[in-house]
Specification:
Distance between the termini: 31 Å
Mean pLDDT: 89
Strand content: under 5%
Low-confidence stretches: 194-201
Number of strands: 2
Number of domains: 2
Helix content: 40-55%
Largest sheet: 2 strands, antiparallel
Shape: elongated
Strand order of the largest sheet: 1-2
Order of helices and strands: HHHHHHHHHHHEHEHHHHH
Amino acid sequence: MRTHREFTASSLFKEFERWLLSAAVPTEDVFAELARYAEIYDLIDDYPQHGVEGRFLYRMKVLQTSTPMPLLLLLFGLDESVLPPERRQRAIRAIDSYLVRRALLNLSNRDHNIVFRDLVAAAARQPDRADEAVIKALSAMQGAHRHWPSDHEFLTSLEQDPIYTRLYRRGVRILLEALEDELRTDHTEQLVVPLGEQAGSKLTIEHVMPQSWRDNWPPLENDPSEGSDRDELVHTLGNLTLVTARLNPTLGNMAWEDKRQWLSQHSLLRLTHGTLLSAPPDTDISEWTAAWDEYRIRARGRYLGSLSLNIWPHADDLLATPLSTHRGDK
């Protein structure tokens, strides 16, 4: 954060010594700053998970990345008179969007240390507008290892790619959890959705049309491929939801009518009731729950993909959103 240099962990002492000698800072000031940032580092873990900061920090842990930490220390270390909380939250939403979009497109993170070094430098140059500096710097990133995926790239991947087989399970899980969170409103019962370590034991990813669909799910009539494209389609976003670990094996490969009844009786998630057991908004498929097939999977995938753009917006949308709407609470 201080030197804007890239170095390995084993070089940390030498880098610190180099900075200390060149900066000529009194020892007591160095210790005071270390103590201050230690407190900030400690407080970062205490942000509630229903806020912008907490959601992002949770997803960082799930994605097993700590690369943004120097940038976060800088942002959280700025006094609110310099960088108001709304601007800090906008910067964090940009970082979140950058990391999650790249993770869900299964893009390399090998240059992330360079990316975040440059972001620290950009934010440090404009501390009172660090959010805009971060967003503009991210937008300027070029190349497969650094660019911020566009809305078109992101949406196309979410709608069409078999994400269950192409991504780590943790990536699919944070996507489904975030969609559930986005679907909740002020009128929704505020149930606690298991996150973090609890999520692995309480909520699991469920294929609505099962991976072994041939047992109870005949192909559509007049389908020349006899359902062969389903082998990838069942792994797309439109066919995935979350269920409890106990319910998952019970559902197994059962036919749609039986599975629909089990989900209706036991699931409380909006992800299931609002987009699976009832038609998503602006869907023109009649008798939505009468069947579960390719048309419904693709329609639900399009809707969930559009919601994902709201959760992880790109630069223009972030900059166009008034700062007063970047609230910590939903």
